[in-house]
Structure formats: structure tokens, C-alpha cells
Specification:
The structure is a single chain. The protein has one domain. With about 90 residues, it is mostly beta strands. It contains no helices and six strands. Strand 5 and strand 6 form a beta hairpin.
């Protein structure tokens, strides 16, 4: 698959192929791996246990340090990159 992104001088552009890899720890024990899933930028997703919930979460923006998510109530929330603690 070939993807083209038009770059404009002195302007920030989004790639249509940006995504976030999220790990969700709902219903997990301490130090237990979470559910890992990939969300493309500007796409909606659901979180357990509310998989039928509408409106849904939406990935608004992502970079190497954080993701900005729109919650079902419309509020924006920044989620920082997970940095595991090494004992």
C-alpha cells in the first residue's frame, strides 16, 4: 500500500496514518498485562464494560508522548505515555 502525504512549507500537516497503541487495565490485577489495542487517529473506540455506550471515546490527537482523547461526555483528556517503574 502506498500512502501519500502532501507537505506544505511552514505548515503542520497530519498524516492520515497516525495511530495510538493503548493498553487498558480495567479488571486487571497489579502487574498483570492490560488489553492492548490500536486506534487510528480520529476514530472512535469503546472501553469495557461499556461496549454498547454511545457516544464513544475518540482519539483526537497523538504524538510520541501523549494521546488526546474525547470522552463520551465530550470532555477532552490527555493521556500520558506509560513509563513503567523499574523496582
Amino acid at each position: 500500500m502506498v500512502c501519500k502525504v502532501i507537505l506544505i512549507l511552514n505548515k503542520v500537516v497530519d498524516s492520515p496514518f497516525q495511530f495510538a497503541q493503548l493498553e487498558y487495565f480495567w479488571n486487571k490485577k497489579y502487574r498483570e498485562a492490560g488489553q492492548v489495542f490500536v486506534v487510528p487517529k480520529l476514530k472512535e473506540f469503546v472501553l469495557q464494560p461499556n461496549i454498547e455506550e454511545k457516544p464513544r471515546y475518540k482519539l483526537l490527537d497523538v504524538n510520541q508522548d501523549e494521546a488526546v482523547i474525547q470522552r463520551p461526555d465530550g470532555q477532552k483528556q490527555s493521556v500520558q505515555r506509560f513509563k513503567p517503574q523499574i523496582p
